[in-house]
């Protein structure tokens, strides 16, 4: 228990007097007047008593009563009455008087202020026969009242008369407790205490009349009550909303069924939508999904609802070294790997309900045909250059290193982990040979530079044409700000010829006889995938891709892909001079982080496409939340807690609640039959509000502001909830005829708003949208009608319409569920089955290996060199065995040796073995440890090298026998970063 | 006259059979209870406390010393801060109560007490005028208020205030 007091604060006299009077043990702490001791009060309040339970008492009288109570005295009615009087009558008067005397020097006026309460007290005392206020003994009431009056009554010049009062005052004032409290707080000087003046100066002036000691609301308001009514509706708008409503569904066209193949049509808006092609052997994470496929899906769905002629194509990007490498790891051919992972991708997107018109792949004959055709056309027109290229080759791995397999220091910004093609820090493109201190990402050896002849796209020659086109496209189309900015900076820096060939096998072969052993560089090749995928969808693909007059092209991607879509690929197509359709709208997202960190497969951080469905959270909810946080304009972060909040507040309580209520009223009060509606001004106002939000939605969606448009949907259901709440149809239904009619109108309007919402939701949450329409038994034409033109909020469920069975749409996400998901995907230490075994091992004696000890303490260069060789040898052995498809046990044993050698090496180099293990993950080696075992870690830190080695071995063994899991971890971890 | 109506509602909710006679004194119309077997009692809280004791419901004044003090504190707060509060003070009152109630069901913790009843009576006129958005902003107060108004026998002379169970506004983007 702790009592906080401040000097000069007359309220503190009370509590200190009572504290001493009762003899209760309690710490007393002197603090400043300004100190906010009581956490829940917005203004400082002293004295304050911190109770054993952790709660604070801030009322001086309650503190006094509490102390008395602790002392075993019950308070009586009469004591209560005096305390109540003190608080409500005396205290305000006293504070007012003190203010006048001490601060304003108007001592002469105090009697006027104090006269009432003082005579009342005097009279009460005179009528009593007891020595004190309530009895012959001093009670808490006496002490409290005395303390309240002390500053005033101690100055005899201020009071005259009130004889009985004076006597009582002196009697109580003789108590030792009172004397010492007055001394402590006011230095026994009463009114003249400087500290009292200081205190009063800091208090807000008293209110007259009620005389309360309170501020005048000078407290600045933290949250300005900005009127967030987003629109001011004019009378005309309200009337016109009512007119639109009255039109109904009849005279509006229906959206025709989709018929494949979809081809551009004369007189229609022909919209070709592409999503950046996901790389095949990389399981997409949530950031990948929201960045391209899901965003493009929402837009394509929206376009279809608008009655546009939309084709949405996407597919897996399958060529490249990473695939080759993965194939070697899994003992499959590259094609088999692609087949396998293409299916993985397809099933993930299917689960997310991404409605492609066609989901293809790049490893097809059409790809070869089209890529080679473009190549020849560029070649014929003189847009290709030949040059000798110095390339990095890793002798240990026996191959040229693709850009992504080299890491080093960025030549521009000195970022130490720049990739071979681009620096993650400064974003500049890099030629791998320009990297300082390059290392092979597979074996960490330093690669050598070798020459080889390559082909280049002559970008400088195409620059002028590109700039002209860019000006037109960015001027007329909806390019996101980041897309424009990235493109601008690229062109401003001046274009250089870009290599389009690579020394690889898994790729589209270069048809030129001089380059027969080469394939196209993935960024020349991959965007051509859009064309070839369309060609695999329809033979008439050229109607989409060589038809800029009729077709509008939307490219969706994350911002790192922008230059390839805005500069490199358009240059290929411009140079080919074949009337290609170039991008009109380049839509790039920023990055989505995971709980404020990056998604990382290798660290097990984040949710990956294939795991989302295992969470038990419906696909629609995932879509909703990802779209709600779509990194539109700035990075955003996925958070489990936020996901639960948004689900529970927005989906369950706002949207779901409104739609469910509207439907339930129809089924419960009107036998599932939409009642007649007689619109009043209030209803029309709602129609106008909803109509306004609908227009905003269309406006935003047309410009691909997917995240912002979602807010319009939620605003509508908010308006709807308020409308229902204010009009109380559930009550009015029980009223007279007028009330019942009113109830009918409100219900009818609400259920129509629900129907509109189902359509607006369709791009975001297709299943929920469909469920709502089913529940409302909505006519099929609603989907086409409501979103035509600038939006028409018509009455689509007229009076007499029968709805189906209504049931709740969303489920609450409980915090336990979220916590466990958060843990599961948080990347904390993947489970090692080895752990119990490790712990069961008897602890070996510390410092049993002096050699290792030395190695730990000081780097042993000679030994390190030896070990490096041994590691390389052993690594080669493992590779060979794997190549020969040797038995798992055999490979496992060799891998164990390798790991042991690596560990010794790192010890010899004076490093903590931990980084090596981590590094191992990036390695192509099969046996890698997930984050090292904490026991091993401790042992290492404690310089117990021997034990560390044992533990690490145990872990390594387990992991090896764990089988392919680790393989996957290692590989995905690597490909993730691309 | 509000105080007298409060007292009469309180009598009913306490199940007191014989209604007492009250009058008021002074400009502020402080209620006075005249009783046959003792001196008159003056003051809303004093009388209310007396009635609770008369009804043999001491738990409504708090079980422990600590709870008793909390009950007294909030009864006093009701009288000194809420009653006759200036328009500008309403925000502070709501804000403070809201943060106080963040981890409590009732004013004195988990037990319903007289403090809840009188605070409910006293704050009703404030809550009734709040917009939905303001209610949501002070969610803990709103929750407590709704709780108390549905507490058996409490809401006698006052109209119920509709409280949305779900939030219409979310703090994030307003």
From TrEMBL, chain A:
UniProt GO BP: methionyl-tRNA aminoacylation
Chaperone listed as a keyword: no
Gene3D superfamilies: 1.20.1050.10, Glutaredoxin, HUPs, Isoleucyl-tRNA Synthetase, Domain 1, Methionyl-tRNA synthetase, Zn-domain, S15/NS1, RNA-binding
Biased composition (Polar residues): 202-222, 829-847
GO molecular function, one term: ATP binding
Catalysis: reaction(s): tRNA(Met) + L-methionine + ATP = L-methionyl-tRNA(Met) + AMP + diphosphate
CDD domains: Anticodon_Ia_Met, GST_N_family, MetRS_core, MetRS_RNA
EC class of the enzyme, as a word: ligase
UniProt-annotated location(s): Cytoplasm
InterPro entries registered for this protein in UniProt: aa-tRNA-synth_I_CS, Anticodon_Met, Glutathione-S-Trfase_C-like, Glutathione-S-Trfase_C_sf, MARS_N, Met-tRNA_ligase_1, Met-tRNA_synth, Methionyl/Leucyl_tRNA_Synth
Annotated WHEP-TRS domain residues: 863-919
Keywords: Aminoacyl-tRNA synthetase, ATP-binding, Cytoplasm, Ligase, Nucleotide-binding, Protein biosynthesis, RNA-binding
Domain named GST C-terminal: residues: 72-200
EC number per UniProt: 6.1.1.10
Family recorded in the similarity comment: Belongs to the class-I aminoacyl-tRNA synthetase family.
Protein name: Methionine--tRNA ligase, cytoplasmic
Lineage, opening ranks: Eukaryota, Metazoa, Chordata, Craniata, Vertebrata
TrEMBL record, chain B:
Classification via Gene3D superfamilies: 1.20.1050.10, 3.40.30.90
InterPro entries to which the protein is assigned, alphabetical: AIMP3/p18_C (IPR053837), Arc1-like_N (IPR053836), EEF1E1 (IPR042450), Glutathione-S-Trfase_C-like (IPR010987), Glutathione-S-Trfase_C_sf (IPR036282)
Domain GST C-terminal: 50-172
CDD domains: GST_C_AIMP3 (cd10305)
Keyword Lipid biosynthesis: no
GO cellular component: aminoacyl-tRNA synthetase multienzyme complex; cytoplasm; nucleus
Subcellular localization, as worded in the UniProt entry: Cytoplasm; Nucleus
GO biological process: positive regulation of DNA damage response, signal transduction by p53 class mediator; translation
Pfam family, one: Arc1p_N_like
Keyword set, alphabetical order: Acetylation, Coiled coil, Cytoplasm, Nucleus, Protein biosynthesis
SUPFAM superfamilies documented for this protein: GST C-terminal domain-like
Annotated function: Positive modulator of ATM response to DNA damage.
Assembly description: Part of a multisubunit complex that groups tRNA ligases for Arg (RARS1), Asp (DARS1), Gln (QARS1), Ile (IARS1), Leu (LARS1), Lys (KARS1), Met (MARS1) the bifunctional ligase for Glu and Pro (EPRS1) and the auxiliary subunits AIMP1/p43, AIMP2/p38 and EEF1E1/p18. Can interact simultaneously with MARS1 and EPRS1. Forms a linear complex that contains MARS1, EEF1E1, EPRS1 and AIMP2 that is at the core of the multisubunit complex. Interacts with ATM and ATR.
Protein name listed in UniProt: Eukaryotic translation elongation factor 1 epsilon-1
Organism in which the protein naturally occurs: Oncorhynchus mykiss (Rainbow trout)
